[in-house]
Amino acid sequence: MKRSKTSFAVFVLPAFVIYTIFMLLPLISSLGLSLFSWTGYGEKEFVGLSNFSRLFTENPFNVRFFNSLFNNMKFFIYTIILQNVAALVIALLLNKELTGSKFFRTVYFIPTTISVVIVGFLWTLIYNPLWGPLNYVLKSVGLEFLAKPWLGDPKFALLSIAVANAWQYVGIPMMLFLAGLQSISQDIYEASDIDGVSSWQKFFYITLPLISPVIFIITTLTFVGNFSAFEIIYAMEGTLAGPNYSTDILGTFFYRTSFGQRAGAPPDMGLGAAIASCMFAIIGLGVILWFNLYGKRENY
Amino acid sequence: MRITKVKYKDALIQALLFIYLIFTVYPVFLMVITALKTNAEIIKHPLSMPIKLNFSGFIKIFTTQNFALYFRNSFFVTVLSILITVFVSILLSYALARYKMKYVNPLSIYFLAGMMIPIRLGVLYINELLNTLNLIDSLIGLILVYTAMTIPFSMFIFMGFIKMVPVELDESAYIDGCSERKILFRIIAPLIKPAVATVTIYNFVPIWNDVYFPLIFIHSPEKKTLLLAVTIFFGQFQTDWSLVFSALTVATIPVLTIYLVGSKYFIRGLTSGALKG
Question: Per-residue pLDDT for B151 more than 90?
Fold first, then answer.
């Protein structure tokens, strides 16, 4: 059958044009924009690397940048622990395939389909210090000393947001763990039964190593997701990411700098592009590093 | 003796799963009951069921606020983005799955790269671009961005399905005088309906739910998408909780319906997309 170059081009072109112009080109060009100074209106002025030097050395930009980077790492660690440990436990329970497992699985996924901002608003309600359910429950079971303004306390705000975020996304790692668990051959467990291996040993020496590819994928997804997050903080703490910037992450810092009006000052898109470039580098390098590390580990 | 012990353990597992179920559903449930209560009742009995169902919040968002319009905007953007993505991605995937050319591999990688990189990192340039094209503050601009964003995943799914359709089918149709366009739309497309369902349902959710791009690109009140309207609304009407939670509930219903109808396709999309490596 005749397959010509022309017809190939006709098939590929529409997707190629849209994808290149609105996705790939912007990703690359936004990096280039970090070398200019402009406010979104009017002429751009080439300034070399000065946006980066402002970002890394000039107060208050450097303080905000390193603070948001540090908070972002905390946010990532909280998420990895809260979300993925919960997901693994649930997946192990679902893997028994008892009555209702399918139903449970479907319901656990519901939060994932709800908009991030709505999840943020719902949890703002739950954490409400005056009449939110969380403090209400704590008070009614005699744990009143634990009740606090969750989103207003710099020590707890980011953790509280991470809980909301984990609540929403736990379904994704859960499904991936489940797929991983189901692909393990039962023969291995039967053989280990004959050898008298305990349940804990089975988990740590058989299950965990065999689902390590899944753990790898989940870590990558969580990393990319957390380092480009924005809406959850925006919904729960606004663009100022309070209290006192304790929940400021790279996404909110980027948004504020590029699009936010700070006391009438024009947006600083050049500096914004420098932040976006850093995010791009962190995500890119993080993923590459992780791929290499993992690749080496697989060679034992 | 042994059997009862196993049953006991199963019951324990089911109990744990049920507790987590409540934890999952409760916030959503709270959203709905809060919407159905009056403001006085919300403050007084935040956790109880509504004494009397109060739909005034729902009525108000459609009568005193422009929610019918925002609903239409979101619907327009979501449906059109998905239609375009499905169409161009099927064409693309067909070419990449069937043609044996040296461009096939590099092109596949070029498109798949988009599955890993968050498009929002390019938002500053997209903003410039839409300004130049006079598409800022326009729903068409949003549609183009969402289409670009969903092409990589759609291509990934379609290619997998098209590769499973035997090439002999194309060839025999070709011998019978079928054009390539007919082969694609009359023979292959009907065979990959599950892929179309997966792509549609899986892409519907993030497009409908997106607030990021409308927040940056949309300025006119009459062009707001539903989720953008809800977001702005939440800040403005912080004291009228019944109204706000009615808005949140209304914005959630479409995605929840789509998910509950097609959860099989949604979950398939998610797992196959993530496990590609």
Answer: yes
Contact criterion met (CB < 8 Å) for A176 and B271: yes
| Cβ neighbours around A131 below 10 Å, total | 15
CA distance A117 to B228: 9
Structure-token match 């008298």, residue found = A196
In whole angstroms, give the CA distance from residue B231 to residue A96.
41
A108–B contact, CB cutoff 8 A: yes
Instruction: State both tokens at A138.
Output: 């704590």
Q: Is A117 close to B231, i.e. CB distance below 8 A?
A: yes
Provide the ipTM: 0.91
The verdict on B254 and B178 lying in the same domain is yes
Contact B118 A224 (CB under 8 A): yes
Q: Which residue of A has its CA nearest to B15?
A: A93
**Residue ranges making up the domain that contains B195:** 56-274
Summarised one tens digit per residue, pLDDT across range B18-59 is 999 999 999 999 999 999 998 888 878 877 888 888 888 888
A272 CB within 8 Å of a chain B CB: yes
Does residue B148 share a domain with residue B243? yes
Question: Any idea what the CATH number is for the domain that residue A103 is in?
Answer: 1.10.3720.10
- What is the tally of structural domains in chain A? 1
Residues near B60 by Cβ (< 8 Å), separated by ≥ 6?
B243, B246
Q: pLDDT tens for residues B204-260?
A: 999 999 999 999 999 999 999 999 999 998 888 777 888 899 999 999 999 999 999
CB contact under 8 A, B129 and A21: yes
Burial of B265 (0-12, 13-18, 19+ CB in 10 A): buried
Reported confidence tier of residue A187, pLDDT bands at 50, 70, 90 = confident
Number of domains in chain B: 2
Of B27, B110, B116, Cβ closest to residue A122: B27
CB contact under 8 A, B30 and A33: no
Interface subset of A 138-167, CB within 8 angstroms of B: 167
Domain containing residue A221: 59-249
Nearest to A104 among B10, B21, B27 (CB): B21
Query: Is residue B230 in a domain?
Result: yes
| Residue at A274 is within a domain | no
Rg of chain A, C-alpha, whole Å: 24
